[in-house]
Amino acid sequence: MKRIYCNTDEHHEHRYLSQKDAIKLYLMGRKPHLKCDKELVQEVLFDAVVTAPLEAYWTRLALNKNPDKGVEIAFLGTRTGLSRTNLFVVPEQLSNQDFLAPDDKEGVFNADHFPLWYKRAAEQVPGTFIYSIPFSSGGTENKSVVLASTAIQLLDDRKSPIVAALGIQMKLDFFQKKFWTASRQNINCYLIDNNGFILVAQDSSQPYLAFIAAVKWLITELVMSFVIQQIPSSNLFMVVVDNKCDCSSAPPVTMEPFSFFDHCEHNESLKCERLKNQKDRKRPDSCHPYHPEVPLRARENAMECGRGVGLDPQPPVTLLALLCVLLAR
């Protein structure tokens, strides 16, 4: 169900109001006919009070911990729709001008409309950071920044609800310097995310490509021996490729599809006959050959129902058991 702070469509004079302006007028009591969700407005006000100290914290970080201006924006979004952002550089120096959609720049957004960075963080395992390359409004990748975000839970428990998400926007070269320490010439290192996008590579022309688009990279690099390992508490994977190995013995990798089952013999009826002949089955008291919840192909044949070897007493075994009881006395 869609939840909004204030209903600005009911009266004509309210239709020009944004949600932020409508909340202000509702709190000041200047619009008695303006209908707002009291509970949701109170939750937003609570989030605003709790997150207010972040402004001073971010300012202190900008002055003391960001000399190279690698981090450009810090942002926070709460479950009720409150958003806070802090610029570490002047707006003209932002590498990605499309970070916030027009609906998000008001400082509040509808409770059923969350930015993509919030949704992706909320879908991850709690306590992990998700890294991604944002797309501009034109649908193309922004090749100069990386977003990192994580979700915040109400309690230190995986079952606890998510109440907010926060993160940063940083320059891509700043992000790459944090990872790039390999100096060996016989290996190639790549940093990819869980969707197959290459975030870090030695060749600066290769990042930002998805695996689907990087067919040439797959064919030439992954034929060689490689190691892939997930980076803890993130959605990133490190791929290390040995570019000096002799790959002449490896078969060529083609994109031609083939059917695996054409090379395998699969006879379901033969398998069933073997199972019936190898296992003894007891005939049930009554036979129910029809089961509507079972597919037609899997239903038993009424003539085969309960077929098996019966349970008969074995005289030698019975006498041996009685003899053991008598000797024990």
From TrEMBL:
Location of the Voltage-dependent calcium channel alpha-2/delta subunit conserved region domain: 26-202
InterPro entries, A to Z: Ca_channel_alpha-2/delta, VDCC_a2/dsu
Record GO terms (molecular function): voltage-gated calcium channel activity
One GO CC term on file: voltage-gated calcium channel complex
Record-linked Pfam families: VGCC_alpha2
Name of this protein: Voltage-dependent calcium channel alpha-2/delta subunit conserved region domain-containing protein
UniProt source species: Albula glossodonta
